[in-house]
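wait is this the right file?? whatever heres the structure
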């Protein structure tokens, strides 16, 4: 596959919900990006009118000086004049605001849940389903807007779907039972109160977390034909837990394959899989979207969360399941691969496909 030629000059982009945890991760990942440049930051009325450095409670590392000097605007198309916006908005407001930007002709790369399951909106993982971008023509025709909305998945769904994709392609999947151990950063900032989580596991995450994990992989792994996505036919049962880990969501999975495979065959499929965008030269794409570890006590968030600059999913403990076919453990960075990094990679693919103009 031919490597993508970089734009002649950096493409201006905006970040909606820029002061929150995911918004800050967008700022970090875009600060030195070779293709995109943050020229607008938007947030709530409480932050609007302030310099970004004064409005944001910066959580990690050094705030990029140039972005720190930007004045925060309201999340309105009239206030954010970039052709591309990355949305880190809370789901309470994301649906309406993202729609307004799309109607104004903007390309919206959304981390919010509101539009993920809309029939005409891609739920995109570039390595897995880049052909789902074909939905954009349907979306524009149906909704009558010149812009577009492209979503990335729930943070745990991202880890799960990337681990499943090579197995789905090689053997097919009929059933999945998955239990997640989800990091505190997935709850945003300030997140879960310390007295609730220290020395504890909380077996509930609100916002329909289990339901998202049970439906989103079906759309992601589905087939795009005749202008629509036919969901994958597997059945998924999910249980979720919040644990005292800073970054990194872990998923313990038991899988029923359509065609039986040994653990060795499954690991070969996982190791050899490079995904649909291999060779395109997308700046955020890891060389290996899925990494297999043979260490018996891995993956671990503390040791493996930054694999592939936080964009790779690490899979380990691949073994026979006494009831189904296989069981394994997958782990990935929830705020990079599972959130902001996913949206940035989606934008890179859209530029490579000519859907974002340089």
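ok assuming it is, sequence goes like this
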């Amino acid at each position: 596959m031919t490597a993508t030629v970089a734009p002649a000059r950096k493409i201006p982009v905006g970040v909606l919900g820029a002061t929150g945890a995911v918004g800050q991760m967008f700022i970090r990942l875009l600060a030195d990006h070779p293709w995109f440049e943050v020229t607008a930051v938007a947030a709530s009325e409480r932050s609007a009118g302030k310099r970004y450095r004064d409005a944001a409670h910066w959580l990690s590392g050094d705030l990029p000086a140039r972005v720190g000097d930007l004045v925060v605007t309201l999340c309105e198309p009239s206030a954010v004049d970039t052709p591309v916006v990355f949305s880190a908005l809370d789901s309470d407001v994301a649906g309406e605001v993202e729609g307004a930007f799309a109607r104004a002709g903007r390309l919206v790369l959304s981390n919010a849940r509101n539009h993920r399951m809309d029939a005409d909106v891609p739920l995109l993982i570039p390595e897995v389903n880049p052909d789902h971008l074909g939905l954009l023509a349907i979306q524009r025709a149906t909704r009558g807007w010149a812009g577009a909305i492209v979503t990335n998945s729930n943070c745990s769904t991202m880890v799960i779907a990337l681990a499943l994709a090579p197995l789905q392609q090689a053997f097919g999947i009929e059933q999945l039972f998955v239990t997640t151990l989800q990091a505190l950063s997935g709850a945003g900032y300030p997140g879960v109160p310390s007295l609730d989580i220290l020395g504890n596991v909380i077996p509930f995450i609100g916002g329909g977390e289990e339901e998202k994990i049970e439906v989103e992989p079906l759309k992601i792994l589905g087939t795009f034909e005749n202008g629509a996505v036919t969901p994958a036919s597997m059945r998924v049962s999910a249980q979720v837990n919040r644990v005292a880990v800073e970054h990194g969501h872990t998923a313990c999975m038991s899988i029923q394959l359509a065609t039986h495979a040994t653990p060795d065959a499954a690991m070969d499929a996982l190791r050899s899989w490079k995904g649909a965008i291999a060779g395109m030269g997308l700046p955020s794409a890891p060389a290996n979207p899925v990494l297999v570890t043979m260490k018996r006590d891995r993956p671990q968030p503390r040791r493996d969360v930054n694999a592939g600059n936080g964009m790779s999913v690490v899979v380990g403990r691949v073994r026979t399941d006494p009831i189904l076919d296989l069981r394994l453990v997958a782990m990935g960075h929830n705020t990079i691969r599972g959130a902001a990094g996913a949206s940035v990679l989606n934008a890179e693919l859209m530029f490579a496909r000519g859907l974002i103009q340089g």
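The first helix runs from residue 21 to 30. so i think its the right one actually
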